[in-house]
Design goal:
Blueprint (H helix, E strand, L loop, with lengths): L2 H25 L14 E2 L2 E3 L4 E2 L3 E5 L4 E3 L4 E3 L6 E5 L9 E11 L10 E17 L5 E7 L2 E6 L1 E3 L2 E6 L2 E3 L2 E4 L4 E6 L2 E3 L2 E4 L6 E5 L2 E3 L3 E4 L4 E5 L2 E3 L3 E5 L9 E4 L2 E3 L3 E5 L3 E4 L2 E3 L3 E5 L11 E4 L2 E3 L3 E5 L3 E4 L2 E3 L4 E4 L3 E5 L1 E4 L3 E4 L3 E2 L1
Length: about 375
Amino acid sequence: MTLFGEAHMRRGIIAALSTAAVILTGALPAAAAGAGVACGDTITGTVTLQANLTCTDVGLVLAAGATLDLGGHTLRGPGTGGTALLTDEEMPSTSPVTVRNGTIKNWGSLFVDYEFRLLYAHISDVTVRSVAGDVLGGIGIGVTVERSTFRDASPGFFWGGSLDISDSTFIDSRISGGPTIPDITVSGSSFTRSTIDGSCTDGGRITVSDSSFRQGSAGITAGWCRLSVTGSSFRDLGTAIQGDKNIVSLGTHTLVGNTFVANGTALELGHRALVQDSEFVRNGVGIHSETSSLGFPVEDIIVERNTFTRNGDGVIIDTLSHVGDNTATHNTGFGLYVPQAVDLGGNVASHNGVDCVGVVCTG
């Protein structure tokens, strides 16, 4: 081979290797930066984990606006202590952190190591398991949770702010908000041996739609929170919904289009409420409100277009109520016991221990 031919061949090989290097470099995932992440590192921008990570004390530190993609991997803690994802205690609401796509388990807390801090976060497609303390604790929060699962993990106590949960699952867990104007919104989610607990002494609300609650002592305890529950089901609970404190400024609890089956008490109402288009089956008591002897008797409960079947008692309300177009059958005690009721008409009762008191019922 001539000298010219050898030089030409060398140039061809070098060009081919350079092209291959460009192709391979372009094929590397943009998230490869996550491969070197170590416990205690501060995450800025967007980082994806490339492997499981086991830590003690602090998992990772999230700078304001950071996104942690777990990449389907697990961030594991020491058991009962430590904080998985430490955040700035004065995080700006304009720079929330994002956590997605993986598992966080065996920590003392998820985001905070004490409750007096701000937290703004978006959580999606994350499984949180075995967190001993508060998952979402804080004095003020703005947190969105989507398509996530909490098992043996209390999403926790937060003083005020908004918590918006959709399409998520809670097992042996608890959400607690208040007293400083919490706003808890839940849609399309399921709760098993899990509860939503409000304590809104300064105002606040709990809004639940298209969700299910199963087993345990309670489903929703409203405290002083204004309550709206629609299109949801409650089964095998001690008390499905408890609405306490007759504070006029709270307005009226709205409970519409729900199903209550095999609970001890479906609705325990210590506050005025609107109960419509709901079904009560095999509960100890469907609707219970005996407050006439208390210092804060319920001002008014409206009961319309509901069905009460095979309960112990269908309805027991001993203060002012408006009752119409309900059907009560085969309840072993009272069908409708509403001695102070305004009769709206259209009530039907049969085969109860006592059909109706306070309203006229057709057979």
